[in-house]
Amino acid sequence: MMMRFALIAGIALGAATTAQAATDIQTVESENGFTAWLAEEHSIPFVALELRFRGGASLDEEGKRGATNLMVGLLEEGSGDMDARGFAAAAESIAANFSYDVGDDAVAVSARFLTETRDEAVDLLRQSLVEPTFSETALERVRAQVLSSIRSDVTDPDTLAAESFAKAAFGDHPYGSPYIGSLESVAALTREDMQTALHNAIAQDRVYVSAAGDITPEELSQLMDDLLSDLPETGAPMPEDVDVQMQGGETVVPFDTPQSTVVFGHEGIARDDPDFFAAYVMNHILGGGGFEARLMQEVREKRGLTYGVYSYLVPKDHGPVYMGRVASANDRVGEAVQVIRDEWARMAEEGVTEEELERAKTYLTGAYPLRFDSNAAIAGILVGMQLDGLDPEYVLTRNDKVEALTVEDINRVAKRLLKPEALHFAIVGQPEGLQEVSAPGQ
Amino acid sequence: MSRIAALIAAACALAAPALAQEDQVTTFELDNGMDVVVIEDHRVPVVVHMLWYRAGAADEEKGSSGVAHYLEHLLFRGTENLEPGEFSEIVAANGGTDNAFTSYDYTAYFQRVAADRLGLMMGMEADRMVNLKLAQEDLDTEREVVIEERNMRVENDPGSLFREQRSAAQFIHHPYGTPVIGWRHEMEQMDLPDVRAFYDRFYAPNNAVLVVAGDVTPDEVRTLANANYGPLHANPDIGPRERVVEPEHLAERRIIMRDARVSQPYVMRSYIAPERDAGDQKKAAALTLLAEVLGGGQTSVLNRKLQFETQNAIYTGAFYDGTSYDDTTFGMAVVPAEGVSLEEAEEALDTAVAEFLEEGVDSEQLDRIKFQLKAQLTYARDDVNNLARRYGAALTSGLTVEDVQAWPQVLQDVTEEDILAAAREVFDRDSSVTGYLMAPEADAQTEQIDSNADAEVGQ
């Protein structure tokens, strides 16, 4: 199936439900001191539950790169007295879905289960988080899958571009290397490393909980105590912050393929920075907002140089970046890079127009309530808001904050945030004509 | 591994059996022959408006591959009433998002907006059904865009190139053997006459299915649809879809593709398989369950035999999607473990399937699968976008609303014997394609030597 325009998820603005739905967000405290945000909705007999454990793959210890990723991959591969297939069969027999994922800043656990088998589902989920067995056979099987993935990354242009950019932006910080690990580091990981990674990453002091669907506050409170009380109270300390210091220019990773894949960007802006909001709206106009964004207009709609070009704020907990992506045939990528540079500079110098800002506001305020159209989506948003340090009331004020922004706000932040001289392009492919096109004065 | 799974699943598309409850869905037809499906969900004031045409890449003229998809792009490039790009601008100015997609059997356009903007969306969609107006400059630019899309999706990805080659080998005569995005040399030649011909032939209300899902009532949709789409004239030349029929397959096909960008080799086997037919979905239901039994996750037969009882594979999968206008395929994939050759992986796959046919279906596994399918009916109600897509895809693939609503029960009625019978019928080597995707010889040898370096030291 061919999409006209494959959407790449940018970083959502914390976000929440519509003004009228907002009153439905309840904060639930459990007896043992856990907190959850709940959107109670009883019309469909199931619950979407989201857990986040802050820290994620950046908690990998020195020399153990890939440990958190491998550990998370093993959570559903055997726990309690069940092996991998026993656990899967138990989940299948009650039609519960669990997914375990890892990122730079958090481990994400998502669950969906029917009301009629809620207790069994919570038991299984608890078992996977509290009592994973990390058996030797499971470890070797999942390790082989991870090693295969690492080998595939070596010939994947998207991964190569992302890794090249991350290395340039973050250096030796955990963000600077792929959290999947290297062939060497993953080959050396032991069962003890898995236990350590588990206790480092999955602990009570870093958990965030949300639920949406067919569950009452009392039931959710009990659920949290059942699910989380046996976790260790504290995990590993959070990683250090990193100072992003990009050098402008290009890094070319030679790769024999017809289209060059490009990741570009420089230092970004923290999620809790007072200017983040203005930066978000500015980026929407520059490269984040679909076909109307300047980059899409200039690179795709006017020149046909690409199928898609996007920019997005990545407010990582310990080192925010501002990034973008484009892919263009080897003999055209030089022009695409130049157009992006020019647009970056034009936005920094000229800012946005009144009309552009009005269009962005109409879109952003109108699109806001549309995000909350399912229990699954709402649960994801509520847990994301908690990670971003927002209050439930944010949902009532968010559109007003968008409306309050002025052209002056946007342009001041554009000047502060955009650094055309620091804009770095990691290019994977056989790009032609880069030097000529990007030389000053052309 | 999810990465590998996604890679291969993207090539094969998993069966998706869930459905809405019948009381959620209303259907009717406009006087000009346009079919309408309304799926109600009043939890949030949002609607999805989708217009599906019963025309896709498999309806293109031979020699103009890619035109259905190119036209889909061009529908955003202006009409008698809207400037190029203005359609999406208006959607965005109303807080909505819009997009479109093309497959073999359909082309579909959709917008997600606040419920009170539905009429506006219908008005614009009706406009571009009949008033398309294209400038040569826009045709040229958009041709570059779709070629870059092909670069990104296909040329830059050996797995996608491999899929194209396998499909071309699978279908000897039928257009399912031609890529939806088009062969590159034909894409380069696409221009106004082909586009216009496809548009004039297929874009008409009596060849379209309107699906509206969300916070609306059937009466509201009827009123708005009559006002916006009602005035459009039916095209009297729209008849039954006529496509060439595959000849009998007499020889199994084997392809080997080597590409330096391949790090993880794998083997794919596919067979021609029947699709869901209106009023006759039993065999497709058995094949849907067969794919689950063989390849549906940790407890599946291939996983058990190739990853747990033996360590031949690091990933296995089975794929079947019965929603198709003409005969489709049933596929299986094995990503071998290190040190296992593709020949050995293929042999292990064949052995596993042969054993399965002897041993029969594990009734506990089948019960679990059927329970999950039932649960899907509950989970599906949380996602009306997806429901809208299922109805649209079914109704543009020769099925009726009744077929869609009967499908869950047809799945529940499948027996162990039905599954085995379907497997025996479909697993006919004469209709199969076996494909190996691997790195070039020299590289493969180098890698072999590297990984055996320790063993070779003593020699």
Automatic annotation (TrEMBL), chain A:
SUPFAM superfamilies: LuxS/MPP-like metallohydrolase. Residues 40-180 form the Peptidase M16 N-terminal domain. Residues 1-21 form the signal peptide. One of its GO terms (biological process) is proteolysis. InterPro entries: Metalloenz_LuxS/M16, MPP/UQCRC_Complex, Pept_M16_N, Peptidase_M16_C. Residues 189-363 form the Peptidase M16 C-terminal domain. Coiled coil: none annotated. GO terms for molecular function: metal ion binding; peptidase activity. Keywords: Hydrolase, Protease, Signal. Transmembrane segments: none annotated. It comes from the Bacteria. This is Zinc protease.
UniProtKB/TrEMBL annotation, chain B:
Keywords: Hydrolase, Metal-binding, Metalloprotease, Protease, Signal, Zinc. It comes from Allosediminivita pacifica. GO terms for molecular function: metal ion binding; metalloendopeptidase activity. This is Zinc protease. Pfam families: Peptidase_M16, Peptidase_M16_C. Residues 1-20 form the signal peptide. It comes from the Bacteria. Residues 191-373 form the Peptidase M16 C-terminal domain. The keyword Nuclease does not apply. GO terms for biological process: proteolysis. Its cofactor is Zn(2+). Belongs to the peptidase M16 family. InterPro entries: Metalloenz_LuxS/M16, Pept_M16_N, Pept_M16_Zn_BS, Peptidase_M16, Peptidase_M16_C. Residues 36-181 form the Peptidase M16 N-terminal domain.
